Here is the input.
Amino acid sequence: MGIRETLLESGAVKFGDFVLTSGKKSDYYVDIKEASTRPEILNAMADAISLKISAKKIAGMELGAVPILVATALKTKIDYVIIRKTERTHGTNKRWIGEINNGEKIDVIDDVATTGGSILKSVEILRSHGAVVENAICVVDREEGAKEFLKENGINLIPVITVSQLR
Here is the structure.
């Protein structure tokens, strides 16, 4: 079964009235976080993402990207970095978990891309610590401007599937 069928049959695509992370209202919601709790769906997403990785390390922001990062890292044996949404005020005070090396190429992974804002935040944190980020891979591109916005910021958005392919 392909990723399209897997996402549709699992109920990951929901219809109704929703407010997205970007603040936009939508008549559908792609619930990759919920879908990620099911091993067979997470495995299918990791398989699909694994084919699109070109860097030697992957990274993504908590919470939505974490299960996908871990599953993909286990499949590919690629190290990963978890980016925190907010600054830490205790411990190491780092904004990330994992290792970021100067000049290292890292692909950013995300669950769903709408405007690209969350992905850009991740990329900016990585770049500000010396990483080279050229690609962002998402499970679903909602086709609401993320690809163009990220392109303007030197990032190639590579979706596993687009929302028009899900409809």
